[in-house]
Design brief:
This protein is 60% helix and 11% strand. By secondary structure, it is α/β, with parallel strands linked by helices.
C-alpha cells in the first residue's frame, strides 16, 4: 500500500491536492496532510510515507530542512517539491535531498500525474529488487545448508579412500566447511514406538532439530537429519580433547531429555572416537552406530561412547537389517522429491544381497514396508498413490507373488521411477500449477472483494512472490486480469439482462457504483448506460 504525505502551508492548495486528485487510480491508498514543515516531520514519523509532496518555503521549517530530518529515519521516501519561486539555489537544495521532481506553481494536473506515476513505478521497482535480493540471499543460505548436508551424508554413509582427500578438501572449501582439525561424531537415535504416525515422527524430528540448532549455533557444529529416525551431530575442533564438544553433547542430552518427557519418545546417543582425517567420517559413523546398539543392554536415555564399549576393538560393524530400512526410507524420500535414480536402487539391491540372513519372505516384508511408507508419504502430500502407480492391494499381491530378488527389484524400480518422474514434473511445473489455481479462483469468485493478500493466503505464498509469478506467466498483472474479467462479465450482463447498472456492478465485484462507472468507462471508453443502449439487441 503506497502512502502519501502532502505538506503545504496554504490551506486551499493543501485541500485541493488531497481531494481533487483521484489518488486511488494512481495506486495511492493512504493520503495524509500537514500544514507546515514541523507538522510534516511529526506526521512522517507516524505515517512512514512512501512519497512526500511538499512546498519548499514554509514558516517555521522549510520543506528542504524537513526532508533532511525525515531522511534520517525514513531513507527510502521519495520527495516531490513544489514552489512558486524559480530560484537556482532552491533547485540545488532539492537535489541534495534526492528530490525526484521540482514542480512550479500553479501545479498542472497532467504534470503531477506523470510525476506520481513515475514515482510509484520507481517504488515498485525498488521493492521488487529488494524482494529478489532477499530471495537470492535466503535461497543461497538454504541451498548451502542442503548441499553441506548432502556432502556430509555421502561422506558419512559411504566413506572415501585417501586418494580422494584432495578432492574432498576442495569440495568442503567450496561449501564453506572447515575440514582441518579433529572430528567427533554423535548419532542420536530415537524410538517413537511401533504405533506412532510416521508424519508425526517427521514433524517431531523437525522440532527437535530446531531446538538443537539454538544449542549448536556454534559454527563448529553441524546437524544432519539422517537415516529415518536419526540426527547426526558433527563436532569439529582444532585440538584433541576439546571441552567445548563435551559441553555441547551434554547440553544436547539435556534438551532431548526435556523434549522426550513432553512428547513421549525414547532416545540414545552414541559418540565416536576423535578422528583427524575427513575420509574417516564413515568409520566415526559406524562407531557411533555401534554405540547406540548398546540400548539392548543399557536401555534408552544414555550417552554411550564407543571407546567405553568393552568389545569395541574386536567388533566388525556389519550391515544390519536397520541399514536396509534406513536406505528404504531414504529412497521413499527421494522418490517423493522427484530425485530417484538407478544409484539408490542398486544400493538397496547390494544391501539385500549382502544380508547373510536373507529369506524371500523377509525380503518381501521389506518391500511391503517400502510401499507402505511411500503410500503414506504421498497421501501426506495430497497425492493419490493408486492413480500415479497401482493400487496398494495390487502392489502387495505382485510382491508376494515374486519368486526372485531380480523380479521384485525390477517391479519396485518401475513403480519408484514412475512416482519419482511424476513428482519431479510436478515440482518443475509448480509455478504453472499456482497460476492455474489463481485463475480458477478469479474465474469463479470475481464477484467477491478479492485482494492480493486473499489470493496469496489461498495458495500459501507471499503476496509479492505471487504477483511476480503471475505476471511472468500471464504477461499481465493479477489486478489487470481481474478487471478485464469483471468488465467482460459486466458487458454480458448489460446486454443480456435487465439488472440496473449498480446491481451489475455489485454482481461483478464493485460495491461502489461510482467506482464501477469510472473503471468501466476507463476500460470500455463509454459509460455502462451508453454501452447498454448501443449494444442491446
Amino acid at each position: 500500500m503506497t502512502k502519501l504525505l502532502i505538506v503545504e502551508d496554504n490551506d486551499f492548495e493543501r485541500n485541493a491536492l488531497q481531494n481533487y486528485m483521484d489518488w486511488d487510480i494512481l495506486g495511492i491508498r493512504q493520503v495524509e496532510t500537514a500544514f507546515n514543515g514541523l507538522d510534516g516531520l511529526e506526521k512522517a514519523k507516524t505515517l512512514m510515507p512512501d512519497i512526500i509532496i511538499s512546498d519548499v518555503k514554509m514558516p517555521g521549517m522549510s520543506g528542504i530542512e524537513m526532508a533532511k530530518n525525515i531522511l534520517s529515519f525514513c531513507p527510502d521516501v521519495k520527495f516531490i517539491f513544489s514552489s512558486g519561486h524559480e530560484e537556482v539555489s532552491l533547485l540545488q537544495e532539492a537535489m541534495e535531498v534526492r528530490a525526484l521532481s521540482y514542480l512550479f506553481k500553479p501545479l498542472k494536473q497532467e504534470e503531477l500525474i506523470a510525476v506520481i506515476k513515475k514515482t510509484t513505478s520507481i517504488l515498485v521497482d525498488e521493492k521488487l529488487t529488494n524482494i529478489e535480493n532477499n530471495k537470492i540471499i535466503e535461497q543461497f543460505k538454504n541451498n548451502l545448508h542442503y548441499l553441506q548436508s548432502k556432502f556430509l551424508e555421502e561422506l558419512i554413509g559411504s566413506g572415501k579412500s585417501s586418494n580422494d582427500t584432495k578432492s574432498l578438501f576442495v569440495q568442503a572449501n567450496d561449501l564453506k566447511l572447515r575440514m582441518i582439525g579433529m572430528y567427533r561424531l554423535a548419532l542420536i537415535e530415537f524410538g517413537f514406538g511401533v504405533d506412532t504416525d510416521i508424519f508425526q515422527n517427521s514433524d517431531l524430528l523437525n522440532v527437535i532439530l530446531y531446538k538443537l540448532e539454538s544449542i549448536c549455533s556454534n559454527q563448529n557444529v553441524i546437524l544432519i537429519k539422517y537415516s529415518g529416525n536419526g540426527i547426526i551431530v558433527l563436532l569439529h575442533t582444532l585440538v584433541r580433547g576439546n571441552e567445548e564438544g563435551a559441553r555441547i553433547i551434554d547440553a544436547i542430552k539435556t534438551e532431548i531429555e526435556t523434549l522426550s518427557k513432553e512428547n513421549n519418545y525414547n532416545y540414545i546417543i552414541g559418540v565416536s572416537d576423535v578422528f583427524a582425517n575427513i575420509e574417516e567420517l564413515n568409520i566415526a559413523y559406524k562407531q557411533s552406530r555401534f554405540a547406540t546398539s548398546r540400548k539392548i543392554e543399557l536401555g534408552y536415555g544414555h550417552i554411550v561412547f564407543y571407546s567405553e564399549c568393552k568389545e569395541a576393538d574386536s567388533v566388525l560393524l556389519e550391515t544390519e537389517q536397520r541399514d536396509i530400512k534406513a536406505t528404504i526410507l531414504q529412497m521413499v524420500d527421494m522418490a517423493c522429491e522427484g530425485e530417484m535414480g538407478e544409484g539408490e536402487i542398486n544400493k538397496l539391491l547390494y544391501l539385500i544381497r549382502m544380508d547373510p540372513n536373507k529369506k524371500m519372505d523377509s525380503i518381501q516384508s521389506l518391500f511391503i514396508f517400502l510401499f507402505s511408507n511411500l503410500s503414506m508419504q504421498m497421501a501426506g502430500r495430497g497425492e493419490n498413490f493408486g492413480k500415479i502407480a497401482e493400487e496398494e492391494i495390487d502392489i502387495f499381491r505382485n510382491i508376494i507373488n515374486s519368486k526372485t530378488i531380480p523380479d521384485i527389484m525390477l517391479y519396485t524400480s518401475k513403480i519408484l521411477k514412475s512416482v519419482s518422474s511424476y513428482m519431479g514434473r510436478k515440482k518443475l511445473n509448480k509455478d504453472d500449477y499456482i497460476v492455474n489455481e489463481i485463475l480458477h479462483i478469479l474465474n469463479h469468485e470475481y464477484q467477491k472483494p478479492i485482494t492480493l493478500t486473499y489470493l496469496s493466503d489461498r495458495v500459501y505464498l507471499s503476496p509479492n512472490y505471487l504477483r511476480i509469478v503471475f505476471k511472468q506467466k500471464m504477461k499481465i498483472s493479477i489486478q489487470e486480469y481481474l478487471t478485464n474479467l469483471r468488465m467482460c462479465k459486466a458487458k454480458e450482463l448489460l446486454t443480456q439482462t435487465r439488472y440496473k447498472v449498480h446491481e451489475i456492478g455489485e454482481m461483478v465485484g464493485y460495491e461502489n457504483s461510482t467506482y464501477f462507472n469510472i473503471v468501466f468507462k476507463n476500460y470500455i471508453k463509454m459509460t455502462p448506460g451508453d454501452y447498454r443502449n448501443r449494444f442491446t439487441k
